[in-house]
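Incident log, structure service

09:12 report received: a user says their structure output differs between two submissions of the same chain.
09:20 pulled the input from the user's history:
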Amino acid sequence: QVHLVESGGGLVQPGGSLRLSCAASGSRVSINVMGWYRQAPGKQRELVATRSSGGSTKYADSVKGRFTISRDNAENTAYLQMSSLKPEDTAVYYCNAVVVTSTPGFLQFQYWGQGTLVTVSE
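09:34 re-ran on a clean worker, output below:
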């Protein structure tokens, strides 16, 4: 079991910046991918950004150039630096972790944090 705890959400003005953190604990397993998803009211949860333990990244088109995901592999901690925030960025942001095993079989385990609310408004 991997326990994910997000922090850093809050109220920010349009054009402002915010940094989210996600700390993984509760398991000694290696986390292959950590990422961020978000869900706005009435909308589906969508991918924001992911980063593998090897450093490869993936971003949603809507946040490219504005958001940056980073990761401390040793601490299994992920960060999301958000800049030039827009009202449409308002959502609950969830941390995600994927653990891939090959012994005794090839399995994927996905974990979610409780979410942290980001509100972009005057």
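09:41 both user submissions now match this output. Likely a transient worker issue. Closing.
09:42 reviewer note: The longest strand covers residues 91-101. Residues 22 and 49 are 13 Å apart (CA to CA).
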